[in-house]
Amino acid sequence: MNYEEIVDANETVNARQGKMPFGTLRKKLVGNKYHYVLVIKSDLIGQMGFFNALRDGLAECDGIKAKQQMHCRLLDAEGGLELELETGNYMTMEQMMDANLAIVAKDKFVDNFVEGLMDIMEEMHGKNIFHGSFAPNNVLIRKGDELPMLLLHASSFDRTLQLNRLLSDGEDFVAPEVLAGDELSVSSDVYSLGKFIEWLHMHSKLPYEYKKVVSKATREEPDARYPSVAAMRAELKELRNKKRSLVSFVVALGIVFACVGLYFELMPQTADIEFVEGVPEEQEEDFLDDASFDPENTDLWDDADSTDVSTDSVVANGKATMDAYMKKAEDIFRKQFIKEADKILSKVYNNDVMNSNEKSFMAGSNVMREELEKTQAELAARSGISSERAGAIALQVITMLMDEKQKNLPKYGYQKEAQEEE
User: What pLDDT was estimated at residue 412?
Assistant: First the structure.
């Protein structure tokens, strides 16, 4: 069995996967090389006006300069028509997901794929060309660079064919008004793209930045959707930036709580002990040596309440003195820790460090955490306050200082770097 026979056998086994709305995608020997071709459906060829619409559609595709547009030429085949695709290796997204489902989990794959489709859609819509359906079997992917590719567009055939029949294999990706007989539009393509993004995440939860965009793009009423692909792209970018800002804030806040939590875990627990002044020995001796003491004289016990009051007063006075001392010690610790913590945080929260990449920021944050822990422990021991109170005061001081420093920094460096990449 030669190579062409092997290819034909594989195409026969996987015929369902290679089917597109206009025909079947397969690999064929053209001249001395193998090329991908689209074998046009025989029932389409027999319809009046189809050939002229196909020829005009190919001319429209040639006028689209976006790299996501597939260019091809018409071939005469025995008993039918074939389109020879430009040189490359291609699959439908339906085939790709069957072969490698994990591709959607690849870093930046979904973002880059969706951005690529939006690029070509903006150019198409500017020329009143509409794809009609972004069903998985109507979107190609080029192997190697994983670039999304579009072949034929449904708007080229809307005067020749019944679009609801042409796109029936992927009607879940077609706008409801088009299925009802209305013409293709920007709104119908926005709807279809939203359904395609939803399909890409069929085995996972929609990320934050896509959830709201898909919800609006796939509304039943066309006027409730995005008025253009540019508007859809702008909101997607805004939501993506908000997500990155939130993640950056959580990372920074997590560092603070990690410092405090680690401190509580490593430092030994102490207990506050209250000292009560005892009864002077002279009173005890006088009381025991008193010759008039009679244990059976019950009148002596009538003064028991007054004795208790006297003892309570001593305890209260001792506690008040201890509270005042601890309050003074905490104030000293707070003042000293504010001064030292400000120096430590300034090493990380400055324009040079915050404009670096995320790796450098995290390295600086680890050093900052160690210095904060060491300073907190030293000042707590020097002030004579408990580790629990020192940790609570330190958390308040760090949070206050971070808020003040973040107000003077417009954004995180690695956040800015990610935005520029877009």
Answer: 47
Q: In what order do the strands lie in the sheet with 72-77?
A: 19-20, 23-30, 33-40, 80-85, 72-77
Name residues whose C-beta falls within 8 Å of residue 44's C-beta, 6 or more positions apart in sequence. Answer: 22, 23, 50, 161, 166
- Helix segments in 100-228, DSSP class H: 109-126, 163-166, 176-179, 186-200, 208-217
Taking the C-alpha atoms of residue 91 and residue 148, their distance in angstroms, rounded to an integer, is 10
pTM (2 decimals)? 0.57
Q: Is the model more confident about 76 or about 237?
A: 237
Cα-based distances in Å from 284 to 128, 289, 317: 107, 9, 22
Asked if the model's pLDDT at residue 273 lies above 70, the reply is no
Question: Tokens representing 363?
Answer: 């390295």
**Which amino acid type is present at position 263?**
Y
Residue with tokens 């071709």: 37
Token representation of residue 391: 């940790």
Stretch 86-94: mean pLDDT, rounded? Answer: 94
Contacts 24+ apart (CB under 8 A), 43-49: 44/161, 44/166, 45/80, 45/81, 47/160, 47/161, 48/160, 49/159, 49/160
Nearest to 93 by CA among 150, 132, 39: 150
Residue partners of 238: CB distance under 8 A and separation at least 6: none
DSSP 8-state symbol, 69: B
| pLDDT tens track for 277-301 | 554 554 444 444 444 444 444 454 4
**Angle CA 168–169–174, to nearest 5:** 60
Q: What are the distances in angstroms from CA 80 to CA 8, 282, 360?
A: 17, 123, 62
